[in-house]
Amino acid sequence: TGDPVAEMYEAPVKNPFTTHYPKDAFMKVVLGGFIFALLYISQIFSGHPFILLAAGLVSGIIALWGLVEITFWVIEDSETETPAATQKSAEVFPESYSKSLPHAGESFEELEKELAKSSQTPQPEDTHLLQAAEPDTTAESAEKVTIKADETQNRPKYETLAEFLADGIEKEIVATRDKVKRSPENYALLMRLAQLHEERGDINLALESLEQCIKFEPEIAEIYLYHGILLRRHGNADAAKAAFSKALELNRFMSKAYYQLGILERSANNIAEARELLQKCIQLSPDDPYAHYQLGMIYRELGETSLALMEIKRATILHPTDSYGHSKLGQLYQQNKQHELAIAAYSQALSLKPEDPFVLERLGEVLAAKEMFERSAELFQEALANQFHPRVETMISLGRVLRRLEDYAEIEVLMNEVLRLEPDHCEGAFLKAIAMIRQNRSIEAIALLEKLTENPAASYEAWLELGKLYQADKRPDKAVSAFIRASTSAPDQAGIWNNIGILLSNQKAYDEALKAFKKAASFDYTDAQIASNLKAVQKKIETSCQRVIDTRREALEKTPDDLDSYLEMGHAFETIERADDAMMAYQRLLAINPEYVPGLMAYAELLRKRGKLKMAMRCYREIIKLQPENADTHLFLVQANLNLGFLNEALRHAVIAQKIVPEDPRVHFLLGKIYFAKGLAPRALKEFTFVAASNAEPDMISWAELMRRRLARTN
Q1: Cα–Cα distance between 112 and 470 in angstroms, integer?
Q2: Residue 360's closest CA among 372, 349, 370?
């Protein structure tokens, strides 16, 4: 069934004193009965009635004594009862633990540190210390300890408490060693000696003493459990596992053996096995806070937050005086966005350890999430005051809260300290720039943000604020470039693209502005301002295109073979999204002159947009025959081959295009994609960096900036 408690009933552990046949008792019955029968059948003492009576009583008593022993053996050997089958009811965990039983154990924090140490491999030169000590080595160690103890005894007084405690341990070690010499096979003395060595911090001597005990092959599970604990602390995980398994062979209901095995498996990252072992430990010892804590941490690693909360909460109920457990519970509540419960858990932790900077900082984060900024700022300041070396992360958290409180002078002072400690800290520089902007120091802010945005780790907010400053400073080209870079990861995509469209409209770049407004509408079609801007630009473009169409029609009436008129009409129809009319214009043009390259290219591009890729590729190949150095055609073939996965063919056309137009951002963008697909990250980074700093179309810059940041961070 997997339930160790059920196994106790199904296959109980026999009492070692009653699992053998009572041969002595049977011999007593047989001997007593035989003598009694011999006396009365043979009438040996017929002339001596008193002797006969005494001999009969003695033989009868011997026989009865044997019968009584046999009776007790039968009762003890068959006293197991199978419990009646009952329906399983849901466990109700108590809300508190007995106050009359104060918990005596290590902190959860110490266990986490010990677990981290135990996952490290042991030093090769220390492995020989795990072997059992020879008698000569033990004697030498005893002499050294005795000499050290004598020196300690000669001191007139103790200068520190540590000296007093160390002297007490030394004296106890000497006394225990003397007892071991008199009783070398006394398991309890050898185990006590190992415990004293461990208490003194000498794991190697502790292992020597315990392995000397294990030489005698004791049938005591606790000895192997303690041996495994020492081996685990020494870093010998395999030997520790064998020791714990031996302890379970002797007593398979020893909960701490399951617990220690669970710790070993967790340190080896065998999460499933660790969970199963810790669950067995809890079944055998439901009030073990450490098992509940470790199981909770395993659930947390597995992402099962609700189960992790349940186990950590149980651990804090069983060990209510451990602030670390309450802080872990608070973190889980905070992660689960249960702010009120997180506040309660952190408050409990602070009541036990009032100046814990970690808990103060976490509580400040929770209050900031609840928009209680003033109290949150106080907690962050208190955390900084209690940190031996003020942490940059805490100062940044305080800066965020002060930004919400609009205390920009204090932010600048705080961020100056952050940048002194970490000159390249992106968020510190950004918060300082925000403080400068709000204090009307735009020129300094622009210089700081320009330097900040050279760092690939700079956030979209830095680009966004820089774009706003450029816009206010009447530098629309730089503003558009900054907004495009901000669009790579900004949550308000609609607002950014709307700003880009406005800037492009002011520059009378209506085609690009139309694309920007359409993109803004694709993120938020309900925004009235975006819809109004889009309609205004569309109206201007439609008016302009209709004027071109009317003018070219009049020209064609006079000169029907005017190829440029057909071409411009086709472009105008495409712009106002009349694809069929555009197709007709291009077909008439090509009917007049099928080798007219601009017309053939426009027709191929329209075919591509309408999804007729094969026909478009055929047109582009014909263009290459007519104009081998047509860069746009090579670029299209690069993109087409990339889509098909033909990287070498795509690279061939890209190299040709680069020779024709070496500064074209489109060439470098496609080269970046090819190098990235080939796994050549440094080359790809170089190409994407070139595109991100160019004046390419917004979408291309946006994607190039995204790839540049990704590759630069990895690099």
Answers
A1: 51
A2: 349
Counting every residue written for the chain, the total comes to 715
In sequence order, which residues have a C-beta less than 8 Å from that of residue 702 and are 6 or more positions away? 484, 485, 487, 488
Contact 63, 36 (CB under 8 A): yes
| Count of CA atoms in the C-beta half-sphere (13 A) of 328 | 28
Mutual angle of helices 187-200 and 161-182, in 10-degree steps: 160
State the DSSP code for 424: T
Report the share of the chain in percent with pLDDT over 70. 85
When pLDDT is averaged across residues 317-321 and rounded to a whole number, the result is 89
* Distance of alpha carbon 2 from alpha carbon 662, whole angstroms: 71
Select from 1, 4, 94 the least CA-distant residue to 278. 4
**Cβ–Cβ under 8 Å, residues 597 and 626:** yes
Residue 5: predicted pLDDT:
60
CA pair distance 472, 122, nearest whole angstrom: 63
Distance in angstroms (rounded) separating the CA atoms of residues 298 and 283: 17
Q: Among candidates 297, 291, 289, 334, which has minimal Cα distance to 316?
A: 289
CB contact at 8 A, 257 and 283 = no
The candidate with the shortest Cα–Cα distance to 606, out of 620, 596, 592, 594, is 620
- Determine the Cα–Cα distance for residues 25 and 31; give it in Å rounded to an integer: 10
Contacts of 432 (CB under 8 A, 6+ apart): 411, 412, 415, 416, 419, 448
Cβ-proximal residues to 256 (8 Å cutoff; 6+ apart), any chain: 225, 281, 285
First to last CA, the chain: 53
- Give residue-wise pLDDT tens across range 25-45: 788 778 877 777 777 777 676
